[in-house]
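Handout, section B. The chain below has 143 residues.
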Amino acid sequence: MSEPAPTSSLAARFSIPWAVAASIVLGRTDPSAFDETALSDPRVRDLARRVVISTDPAMSPRLVDAPTARVRIVLRDGRTLEESTTVVRGDALSPVPREEITAKFLALTSPALGDAQARKVVDAVAEIDTLEDIRALTEMLLP
């Protein structure tokens, strides 16, 4: 997870330095931030090499009142930006908005299902409590 120079899209998805650099340089961490085009972007590669990952024993996840993650960015002009959190994004205490989850689902499934079919799945999930048989939903997931 600390490899700064992944050689494949899959390796990039598991690289914290790559994800951080892609987020800063490209402004996104969607699937395109890990594709062949992004992997060949010298700006992302350069920044990923400068990302340092370290652990801090004082930040144990067992300590409820202690930060579980901290990010520190040192800018070229010497300024330091820092943030920490005890709640992971997507946790019940920090939920991801439904619209964002829907957009991600559509981005990931539309290439396989087609836009119209992917949107039908979204609509079916929104009304899942009215489905008489879950097979109707699972059948929609087949390309």
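Note. The mean pLDDT is 91. Compare this with the example in section A.
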